[in-house]
Amino acid sequence: MQRVIGRWNRLSGVAMASLAALAFWMGTAAAEPMTGAPVAWGFGLQEAGGLLKERIHDFNSLVLWIIIAITIFVFILLALVVVKFNARANPVPSKTSHHTGLEIAWTVLPVLILVVIAIPSFRLVYYEDRAREADLTINVQGRQWYWHYEYPDQGGFAFDSRMIPAEEINLAAGQLRNLSVDEPLVVPVGATVRVLTTGQDVIHSFFIPSLGVQKYTIPGRALETWFRADREGVFYGQCNQICGTNHAYMPIAVRAVPREQFNAWVEDAKKRFAAAETSAPVAVAETPAASTLQIAEARR
Ligand SMILES: [Cu+2]
Q: Which contiguous run of DSSP H or E holds residue 199?
């Protein structure tokens, strides 16, 4: 008995050590900053920088396996028809034109497949719809052709975010052509960020693939969505609603940093953008942007 317990203790010791090693490895893997951007010859969806994208990956895999199964099934049926029922192998064809059982089957089975797809699909749509417990709110305003961000619960500072022009881009410093911006959106890692969108002029779309977030920005309306960056890094997106001549030149960059670094950035941003705010002319669409928070609260 003593020996069994001893062996058990040794085994659990080994298990604990492996778990610790795994946790350390996962910790270091997670600590490595990530770049959420398209890659050359990239296949499939972009790597996940947060849990929303992970859920999108899962849903995508589910649908992909269903498609693979259906394709194989149809291919087998087709091969069967070609081999077994060609004119040579089957000179006298059957005159059957109806089969009640078969007709019920090929109606009910596709419906069941659609239900299997619909349940996780709706679950995901509602999960992405709004943040339950937000740590932070950001007002996002799409403008022709740049982004305007406001942090209403961090002192209410606001700033514009514009693409770095191709001729000024510093690739050696890790900047990406047509994706890097002068003032990225900064968020704390692991924080649930509520996003309230509105458009100043036309419809734009706030879209960051690696964070699994996409929302229209519509003039005169406030829409809500959310995201959470679980890894440190920079996550790039683009306006993906055709919005005019420079539609391709209004990228989005989100920098996810540790909480302390975020707090320091907020303090600095408050000072830097306070001056810019007072000198800027008051835009017509400032009103909906400021009231989006109340609208969102009223919807709750
Ligand atoms: Cu746009």
A: strand 193-199
89 and 173 within one domain? no
d(CA 35, CA 73): 39
Whether 20 is covered by a domain: the verdict is: no
- Give the β-pairing of 193-199 and 223-227: antiparallel
Same structural domain for residues 178 and 103? no
Task: Say if residue 41 is preceded by a cis peptide, omega within 30 of 0.
Answer: no
Domain that holds residue 102: 51-129
145: three-class secondary structure by DSSP = coil
Q: Cα of 218 to ligand 1 centre, how many Å?
A: 10
Distance 158 CA to ligand 1 centre (A): 19
Full DSSP string of 46-100: PPPSSHHHHHHHHHHHHHHHHHHHHHHHHHHHHHHHHHHSSTTT-SS-------H
Tell me, in angstroms, the distance from the centre of ligand 1 to residue 54's CA: 26
Choose the final residue of a domain: 109, 129, 149: 129
Report the predicted TM-score, pTM, of the whole model to 2 decimal places: 0.77
Q: 247 CA distance to ligand 1 centroid (A)? A: 5
**pLDDT averaged over 10-residue windows placed end to end, the chain, 300 residues:** 48 52 50 86 92 96 96 97 93 90 95 96 94 94 96 94 93 91 96 96 96 96 96 96 95 96 95 68 43 51
